[in-house]
Amino acid sequence: MTRYIRNKFIGLIIVLIGVTILSFIFSNISSVDPAEAFARRTILNPTTEQVENLREEMGFNLPVHIQYLNWLRNCIKGDLGISLLTKNPVIYDISKKLPATLSIVSLAFLWIIAITLPVSILSALSKDNFFDHIMRMITIIGISIPNFWLGFLMLVVFAIAIPIFDVVAYGDFKGLILPSLTLAIPIASSSIRLLRATILSNMNKDFVIYARARGISRNNIICKHILKNSMPPMVTVFCQNIGYMIAGSAIVENVFSWPGIGRHLVDAIIARDLPTINACVLVIAIIFVLLNLFADVLNCAINPKILQETGGF
Amino acid sequence: MKDILTINNLSILLRKNQSQIVKNISFNLEAGKILGIIGESGSGKTLTCKAIMRLLNEKKFTIKGSIRFKGDDLLKMKEGQINNILGKDISMIMQNPMTAFDPMMKIGTQIVETIRAHTRLSKKEAYFMGMKELKKMNLKGVSEIMNSYPHTLSGGMLQRIMISIALMLRPSVIIADEATTALDVKTQSIILDEFNKIRESGIGLIVVSHDFGVIAKVADNVIVMKDGSIIESSSVYEIFENPQKKYTKELLNSRLLIREMRHA
């Protein structure tokens, strides 16, 4: 088990390095010059000389790989740089914004679990019946609806037509409900399809027939055997979805004027605030990667067969 | 001998197109006897067994006729009633021991679950009962077996655990559907010896196989099935010495094992 986790961990560090390198390269490919953008924001009509000076000061004149190594060195020391936009340490800005995102995402995650489990079980049990057909339609709509449009729809219906919620409602728990639902609905829809299919395929397995032949009751077979055996793919998907929700929270945060990390990242990209972009990418990547590790460990814990199969790895 | 299971005019139809898969078959099983059912794949052996245990999906199949177990018709029973009988009075040994157990549940838990579905024992009592019953099958390292997951045990070992579970609650009928097909020859003969012991304890056994060698070794009476019908039915001696139907002869000739049986 320890060796399995250690091996996974090494793989994850390689992923992190890859992600940050890509982030650096893409930022440099862009035609907008960060030094010039910064100069135009801070100095009225900057001269070429002033821009050059700034460039040198900020280290943007160095080759990309040197820039990356410098950044990496500081990063290991815990210094992610100063934001060009807010002039605060990047880490301070992120620590202010991250909790807002995490609160939406965690509530969204609870919605997903609370919706997915009962609906998929009922759909699987009433396969091809009325409920299953209705759910199939609803989930297909849920999967295909764009996030931002769903968000606007929610606002129009539940904050304007039927004013249960406020349009801008950052700060209390009530304000969390609409954005988290907006994040949760598409993911819950696709999870329902997946879990329903997994449950149905497990229902025809030998071990279910044998459990019935041993006289185990229907409810026990569903809860103890079928659901448990359907969990491994769901654990992976759920954990990945938390990662996607954090990375993709920008759209929902913009719609609901929510001061989270996604919106922060978009603002930084527009302002060519390179230290913030790199730091946001790093933080999101770390969360994503840790969630994947968590999913793997959890799967090992519930399914002893995995360790045996990939033990050599 | 007393009949414990009487199957009368059993027909199984596909609901979709009403095609008849098992056609009007009747037979009975006596206590302390082994009934062999033989036939090629698709002859309806497995469907018949599953129909007896009510394991067929009733949305897909229509089942007609009657299956009387100690006088009561199994086909008319409600789900709760049938669950009380399955695993306790009628138990099953499945074809592939490697896939029959829940891969994510320890053997011990699956045994305890079975015992507790039919008795009022506590978890601990059921666990001890399970260990005691496994020891009767001459399995070694019983406490490790209880604590291990199915994939860590061998097919032969799992098959013996399955037989042990089948016997655990003192059933009157055991149905073994191709129970030896997935095993190597040596384990197969150990399992067949177990079947002979089961017969001696007065349990009625239905052994389904496509292998005449297996049937010859254990069965008292034999039913030959083809395309969903019983085409021949008599004692094992009659079938081997004096088969009436051409199909039975063909089946016999295609088995080399029969020679071995004649010397036995």
Word description of this protein:
The complex is a heterodimer of chains A (313) and B (264). In chain A, 80% of the residues lie in helices and 0% in strands. Chain A is an all-alpha fold and 313 residues long. Chain A folds into two domains: 2-76, no CATH class; 99-304, MetI-like (MetI-like fold), CATH 1.10.3720. Chain A starts with a helix and ends with a helix. The mean pLDDT of chain A is 85. Chain B has 264 residues and is of the alpha/beta class. The mean pLDDT of chain B is 87.
Structural topology:
The complex is a heterodimer of chains A (313) and B (264).
Chain A: H1 2-29, H2 34-42, H3 48-58, H4 64-77, H5 90-125, H6 130-144, H7 147-161, H8 173-203, H9 206-213, H10 218-247, H11 249-255, H12 261-270, H13 274-302, H14 304-310
Helix pairs in contact in A: 1-13, 2-3, 5-6, 5-8, 5-10, 6-8, 7-8, 8-10, 9-10, 10-13, 11-12, 12-13, 13-14
Chain B: E1 3-14, E2 20-30, E3 34-38, H1 45-52, E4 61-69, E5 72-73, H2 79-85, E6 90-93, H3 97-100, H4 107-118, H5 123-136, H6 142-146, H7 155-168, E7 173-177, H8 185-200, E8 204-209, H9 212-218, E9 221-226, E10 229-235, H10 236-241, H11 246-253, H12 257-263
Parallel strand pairs in B: 3-8, 3-9, 6-7, 7-8
Antiparallel strand pairs in B: 1-2, 1-4, 4-5, 9-10
Helix pairs in contact in B: 4-5, 5-7, 7-8, 9-12
